[in-house]
Structures are given as structure tokens and as C-alpha cells.
Amino acid sequence: MPLISQDQIQAHNAALQRHADTDYEYLSEQLARRYVDIDTITQQVAAFGVAIPSWGVGTGGTRFARFPGMGEPRHVFDKLQDCAVIQQLARATPTVSLHIPWDTCSDWSELRQMASSYGLAFDAMNSNTFSDQKDQPHSYQFGSLTHAEAATRAQAVEHNIACIEIGQKLGSKALTVWIGDGSNFPGQQHFRRAFDRYLESSSAIYAALPHNWRMFLEHKICEPAFYSTVIQDWGSSFMAASALGPKAQCLVDLGHHAPNVNIEMIVARLIAGGKLAGFHFNDSKYGDDDLDAGSVAPYRLFLVFNELVSAAHENVAGFKPAYMLDQSHNVTDPIESLMTSAAQVQRSYAQALLVDRAELDAAQDANDALMATRALKRAFETNVTPILQRVRASAGGAIDPVGAYRASGYRQLAGKNRPAVAGGSGGIV
Ligand code: LRH
Ligand code: MN
């Protein structure tokens, strides 16, 4: 199935270009009054990328139900094609993060070639020891890396090492390990022994990491376990990453915290500890809702990026976070949501670049709370859309990705080429 033709994108842009240029000039004047050179910001935003979760291009679901849409991707090659359309139009997602075994295929070199033909590369690999595969000898119902039985732990370690080997074939340089291990009843699990088993299993995975790889530990407050989770919070993750070694760091999924937790401060702590792996960006109102990034709390996303830009500004040692989306698209076209979310993450980064650091530092040192928070709000309230449009258009993308996508009829074509998938029982994918 062909991607969207470049001519179609150019035709789409032609109708919008003059206004986009006028808006860019207007913003350029506004920023010049703040002694900010708009082209410098535009270059920095153009160099920013966020990875697409392969599991995000299919319609997502909940435990209650999943309502597949038209032209659902059938396998990893379809998923890669949809990722290519997202990159073609939004120009902010040059890498794809795979999930094993959801993305298992028979020829990894064919997949790698297809990706590079689309100008895509592979980001962190994701292992899966939170569900049982057909004919799997040991069930993960009662845990995986922390299971009481050594044989089940060994099976989970083996799977993670297999994910590393696949990643090496694809050019990936990191493994994300999220486990649902925990308990549903007080007394069901010995907290310290379970954590010790986690360290023992994870160190076996760590030992298998190639020299230039990293291991991202992903904490989560609850689900699927609802009384305790072994890697429940950033503290547990930080303890584990510190015990494992320099290649192990802590990944922050924005939806994995109790409501109203100050995530931007957790980010600042992990940066200070040299243990910030990166992010799974999404949004939430209640639990791990996996909503589109910035769709509910864009100011919170901005405040996270304010910590990231501050760290880069101060050249904090070892600061090299990986950026990924991790969302579930239950009621929108996943391609539209992923393009919109990638642009939203780019927007938060661009706004954070506009914070006057000297003004903020001076206000903080003077305990001038009003001026300090105003310095942040002024950046957040700056409409950086002209910069995002310029970044996309100058990279060959669409000024309005969703508009160009809908005009292209790509989804309808996918509907013709990919047999419809029946609706089904629950599950996120
Ligand atoms: C767990 C999680 C993890 C992925 C899964 C799809 O909630 O955030 O990152 O493995 O979602
Ligand atoms: Mn996640």
C-alpha cells in the first residue's frame, strides 16, 4: 500500500503556506522583543523527536471492550507503514518502539530494511512478561521476574534476553522492562523478598546488555496488581537502577502515578541522581488512562519539559533522556492521535525553550514567587504553532497533518487493503 504522495502534501501546504509564513513573522517579532531568536528555537525543535509505540497504531481497548476501526494493522509490517505515514506528515517521530511478542516476525532484517526505506529507526524494545503466550511452560499469573518459583523467573529473564537479541538485529539500543508483578491481598507477597528476587532476575538481564545499551525500569503504582506492585514508584525504581549499575535507569510513564503526584519534581530528582531514562508520554485524569499526551493537563506536560530544558541548559552530566509516546486510542483514529500527540510533545518542548532562565533564576533567588511563576506562564501561553508548522513544512511534512491525512484517504485505502477485524472482548491491543 503506497504512503501518501509528496505531491498531495505539497498541494495541501500550498493552500496554507502564506498564512503560516505571516504567523511565523508575527511570532518572530513577538519573540525578538524578548531577545529570543525564533530560528534558533525552530532549529532546536526540528532536532527533537519522540518515538511511536508500535502498539499504539492499532485501536486500543479496555478490559471491558475494544472496538477495532477500519484498516486495522494486522502485523508489524502494517504497523510500520502507519508509523511511516505519521512521520511523513508530522515529521516528529523518526523512531518506533516495538513490543515483543506483539511484534514478532519471521525476518527481522526485512523489517529493518522496510523501516530504513521509510526513514525510520527502532527505539527501545519492550518485553512482555505480563501475559501468557500459547504453550508457555510457566504462567505469569503470580508474577514474572519476582515469581516465587525460580523456573518462572528464569523464563522471564530468558524472554528479556531474547528481546535484547532482536533489538540488536534492528539497531535498537535499549530495553524497557515493565512488569505487573505484585499482589492483590495484604500478606499475599513478602515485599522485601519479592524486591530481592527482582534484583536477582534483573541483574541477569543487565549482564546480557551489550556495552552500548541501556535498561529502562518502568515503575507503576498499580494494575494489574491492586494491593502492591513490586516496582510501584520512582523510589523502588531508583533503588533497583542504583543496585544494577550505570546502564540501568528509571523510565517515567506519566500515567503511572497516583492522581496529583508532582511528576515534574520526580523528574528533577531522577535527573539529579543521574538516573532519568526517559518517558512514556500520555495523559490521565484518574488512573493509567493512556489518553493522548497533553489532552487533559498540557500545563503539567509543559512543567515536565521545563525540568528537562533546565537540565540541558545547565549541562547536567549524563542527561540523555529517551522520549516515547505510550497511549491507547480507543475512540480516535490512532494515526491522527499519534500525530497530534507528537506535535503536543513538541509544543511543550518549544514552550519550555522560551522560558527566560535568567529571569526565572533571579526571581527564585529573590523569593519572588509571582515573578517566578509568571516567567513560566508567559512561555506556556506563547502560541508556538507557527514554529511547529515551519518545522514540519521545511522537513517535507504537512502544515496541518490531520487535515492532510484526512484529505489523503489513507484510512479508507487501508480499509480496502486490510480485511476488517471483528470487535472483540477486552484488552488494550
Ligand atoms: C504498562 C505500560 C508499559 C507497556 C504497556 C503497553 O501500563 O505502560 O509501558 O508495556 O503499558
Ligand atoms: Mn508505559
Topology:
Elements: H1 6-32, H2 38-46, E1 52-53, H3 76-90, E2 95-97, H4 108-117, E3 121-122, E4 125-126, H5 150-170, E5 174-177, E6 182-183, H6 191-207, E7 214-218, E8 228-229, H7 234-244, E9 248-253, H8 263-272, E10 276-281, H9 298-313, E11 322-325, H10 334-353, H11 357-365, H12 369-380, H13 385-394, H14 401-408, H15 410-417
Parallel strand pairs: 1-2, 2-3, 4-5, 5-7, 7-9, 9-10, 10-11
Antiparallel strand pairs: 6-8
Helix pairs in contact: 1-13, 1-14, 2-10, 2-13, 3-10, 3-14, 5-6, 8-9, 9-10, 11-12
Bound molecules: 6-deoxy-beta-L-fructofuranose and manganese (II) ion (MN).
Keywords:
429 residues, three-stranded parallel sheet, alpha/beta
- Distinct compounds present: 6-deoxy-beta-L-fructofuranose, manganese (II) ion
Number of strands: 11
Total helices: the number is: 15
Rg over CA atoms, rounded to whole Å, is: 22 Å
Task: Tell me the major beta sheet.
Answer: 6 strands, parallel
User: Which runs of at least 5 residues are low in confidence (pLDDT < 50)?
Assistant: none
| H/E element order | HHEHEHEEHEEHEEHEHEHEHHHHHH
Q: In percent terms, what proportion of residues is strand?
A: 5-15%
Q: Reading side by side through the largest sheet, how are the strands ordered?
A: 4-5-7-9-10-11
Class by alpha and beta content: alpha/beta
Helix content: 40-55%
Average pLDDT taken over every residue: 97
How far is the first residue's CA from the last residue's CA? 23 Å
Shape: globular
